[in-house]
Amino acid sequence: VAGLGNYGLRGTRHSVGMAVLDRLARQLSVAEGWRVDRRCCADVALAAAHGLELVLLKPRRLMNINGLSVASAAEIYNLRPQDIYLVHDDLDKALGKVAIKLGGSARGHNGVRSCISALHSNEMTRLRVGIGRP
């Protein structure tokens, strides 16, 4: 599960993917388990839920190149694109509204575009979190 955003701009609506992962880590009782993984240039926490092993990932790169971290983590943890969930902001959704999208285009989102390019696939599931338009 990758929370897309700009690491240096945490706490902004544009980096809501990282905030969702922070909340998920707290709910899974692994919030103290975040560590820097230099191999994929990201903060990583490992968790388990409903019999699944999860890799929680917060890239330490700019949004436009988040895909490099996601692709590196996929290689390290032996994940296929269809195993990956991207959590990201969506300007076209009202603040707080969420939607799940299975594969498809980036719909203008640079972080998703970067992931599609780096993974050579568009098969990742996306959790789109509405941030509304300013």
From TrEMBL:
Its EC number is 3.1.1.29. The keyword 4Fe-4S does not apply. GO terms for molecular function: peptidyl-tRNA hydrolase activity; tRNA binding. Pfam families: Pept_tRNA_hydro. Keywords: Hydrolase, RNA-binding, tRNA-binding. It comes from Eurystomus gularis. Belongs to the PTH family. This is peptidyl-tRNA hydrolase. SUPFAM superfamilies: Peptidyl-tRNA hydrolase-like. The lineage of its organism: Eukaryota, Metazoa, Chordata, Craniata, Vertebrata. It comes from the Eukaryota. The keyword Hydrolase applies.
